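User: I'll paste a sequence; please echo it back and then give the predicted structure.

Assistant: Echoing your sequence first, then the prediction.
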Amino acid sequence: MSRIVYLDGHATTPLAAEVAEVMAPYWTVMAGNAQSPHARGQQAAVAIELGRGQVAQLIGAEAQEIVFTSGATEANNLVILGVAEAARQAGLGRKKIIASAIEHKSVLAALDELAARGFDVALAPVTADGVVDLAALEELIDETTLLVSLMGANNEVGTIQPVAETARMARAKGALIHSDLAQLAGKVPVDVVALDLDYASLSAHKLYGPMGVGAVYISGLSSLKPRPLVFGGGQERGLRPGTLPTPLIVGFGAAAALAGRNMLQAARLQERLASDLMAELRGRQVRVLQNAIAAPRLPGSLSIQFYGLDADELVGRLASSICLSTGSACSAGQISVSHVLKAMNIPDAVSQTVLRIYVGRDASLSDIHFAATEIAAAAGAMVACHWAADPVGSTHEVHTH
C-alpha cells in the first residue's frame, strides 16, 4: 500500500490505538444500556461516569458539570439556542448575543437562527492575524448582552483566542460567557474555572477520541441552565435525552486522560515538526507565506499561502499521498471563500491559495520530509502546467495582505 501522511488534524484526529482498545469490549461482551437494572447495564453506567470524570478533569471541571452530546456542533447549539430560550422564558430583558467573526459554522448558524427569532446578534471583528479585536469586542458588550461566545482556538488558522480577557469584559456587563473548546482542549492546558466560563463545548474526535460524541460544560455557578433542544427519557439531567453511547463515552474519557498525560511532550514535538515542514518547503523553493505568524497558535498548526497556486487543485493532486484541506471540513461541498480568511482581510484571490495543516502528535520527521517532497513536486507540476498553458501570463504576482 502506498504511503499516506495525515496532516488534516483540524478536521479530525485519528482514533488513538489505546483508546480503541479500551472501547472495544463495550461494543460486544460488555454491551449494555446504562439505564438497565441488570449487571451489564450497571457496568455501562459505571463506565460512563468514569468517562465523565475523565473529560471533566481534562478541563478542570466537576463531573456533574459535563453533559454528553453527539459532538461540539450539538453542544454549541445547545448552549446558544438553549441559553437564549431560557432567558426568554425567564423574562430577562437581555437579548443580545455576541460572537467573533471567525467562529465555527455551528456557532454562526445558531446565531442566524436566533436573529430569525428576534434576538440581537453581533459579530466582533478580528485582527489580520486572526485574533478577536478586544477593543472592538468591548464596545459591543453592553447591559443588553446576554451571552458572549468566543472559541478557544480557530479551526482553520489555529489562532488561540483571548478567552479569559473576553470573560472579564462579559462579567463587567453582567453577561454570560461560552467558549467552543473543540480545537483547544487536549492540545494545550485548559481550565474552565480559571477562564471563568459559564459554558464550553468539546469534541472527542479533535483529541484522538471517537467521532460521534462530545460534551457541553455547564458551570454549576451559572445563572441560567440551557433549555433542551430535544425531549425524551430525561437522560443527562434532561438536557440531552437519549440512550447514552457507552463505547463512545468510554473512548472520549480515555482520549481525555491520554491527552492530559501526553500534552506538553506532544506539543513540543508538533511545534518542531511544523517548523521543519515550513523550512523544508522553502528549501525546495516552494513560494509560501504563513498566515497568523504573530499570533499565539496551536502547536503543529499552520495556515499557508502558496503563491499563485489554486489550493483546491493542490489538495486534489496530493489526495492519494498527503491528507490536507483548504478550510473547515464542515463547509465541505460549498464553493465559497473562507469566512475566517475573509474576516482577517485576506483578499479572495489570496484565500484561494491557502492550505490549513495540522501536524498531529503521531507525526515523525520522516513524515514531514515525505510531505515536503510531495507538496513541492505537486506545486512544481502546477507551475509547469500554468507556464505551458500561458507562458506570458503565468508570471502574475499574488499580492498578500
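The radius of gyration is 22 Å. The chain has a mean pLDDT of 94.
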